[in-house]
Amino acid sequence: MRQTWRWFGPKDLVSIDDVREAGAEGVVTALHHVPTGEVWTRDEIAKRKAEVARRRDGRTSGLVWDVVESIPVSEDIKTRSGNWRAHMEAWIGSLRNLAAEGVETVCYNFMPVLDWTRTDLAYEVATGATCMRFDLVDFAAFDLFILEREGAEADYDEAIRAAAKTRADAMDDDARMALGRNVVFGLPGAADNFTLPDVRARLRDYAGIGTADLRANLTAFLSIVAPVAEELGMRLCCHPDDPPFPLLGLPRIMSTEADYTKIMDAVPSSASGITLCTGSLGARPDNDLPGMIDRLGDRVHFLHLRNVARESGDVRGSFHEAEHLGGDTDMVAVIAAVLREERRRYEAGRPDASIPFRPDHGQDILDDKTRHAQPGYPAIGRLKGLAELRGVIAGLGHAKGA
To answer: For this structure, is 237 an active site residue?
Structure first.
């Protein structure tokens, strides 16, 4: 398992020097400053590679750009409307330029309008650490009484609607604004920063687009880009929905093993694969993560290893980010399944036998609270997570050797 670390570029408050000291071997990054729908040029890609490879004092870092996360898939592509053809050409152009610079693995997602969604970016747990949290009642309060989405009432039962109204009525204007900012925070480091009017307009773009339509659009997208990736020797890996259940009346198509199986079967190219995120998928109690790796592992090209503590047994419920070994996902069983898959790959002679992973998210602890890095991406919290994951990997390897 190859140890990587997400880095948001030169403006990231967790530096390349910090990444190197944490013990990571590779970097996961993107050209966040390039607007969605535009081509990533070779010059910009080469510049980012050089930034990854260099410490503050000019010495080599020993790090390389292992995984792209992400080339954004525009809403036009997802809805197959507007400038989708031009955006497809730009996406393919970015692939070709990345391949020319030696970057082979690209993570992307197909979530409508927003990427990951949380209601609290600094929720305090019992230890005093803070983390990101999704509270279903808070989200319903946002949806019903701040965004005021048409038809939202039908998405919540009477008890949730009543609790959401009580919650919303207790909020002053500042609290409402803070909740709205948290919900639309979206992808860290992205060029797009949505406002509530933006969200309302984007929701209208999906009027009439259901689950089958969105899945067909993803299949059509992959039918075009996967052959290009295969020709270039690249790997594409789709990130799951986060949270893995419908929000804002929008379809969700990458939330379960069945969802992934449908897409993998529809586009059987080995270049089209999976970013298996244990945090996103683990927010649903009906997802069997070790089993998913055993059954779909040959298409897993990238791993996000994090844990969440579910606050109910419902498929759609509240949860918060837990310590990497402390949530509801059995991380030891997950890593054991990954190591089994890697052994199969080594025996088959696959060049991608070592699967890159990163310690995804993390709780803010110690000096993280004064550094104020990207929400969910603290330095020390992720270092702690990486150390715990590294220990599990070493322990399982030792037990096998014994």
So the answer is: no
Among residues 66, 360, 364, 368, the one annotated as catalytic is 360
Is residue 377 part of the annotated active site? The answer reads: yes
What is the distance between the alpha carbons of residues 214 and 28, in angstroms, rounded to a whole number?
27
Two structure tokens written together for 29? 């990054």
**Whether 361 is catalytic:** yes
Between the alpha carbon of residue 4 and those of residues 13, 114, 192, the distances in Å are: 17, 25, 25
CA distance 118 to 120: 6
Q: What b/e readout covers 32-41, taking b as 16+ CB neighbours within 10 angstroms?
A: bebebbbbbe
- pTM equals 0.94
pLDDT tens, residue by residue, 202-259: 899 999 899 999 999 999 999 999 999 999 999 999 999 999 999 999 999 999 999 9
- Kindly compute the dihedral angle of the four CA atoms of residues 92, 275, 285, 162, in this order, to the nearest 10 degrees: -40
Write out pLDDT tens, residues 49-80.
Answer: 999 999 999 999 999 999 999 899 999 999 99
Catalytic residue, from 12, 135, 138, 239: name it: 239
Nearest to 290 by CA among 302, 279, 278: 278
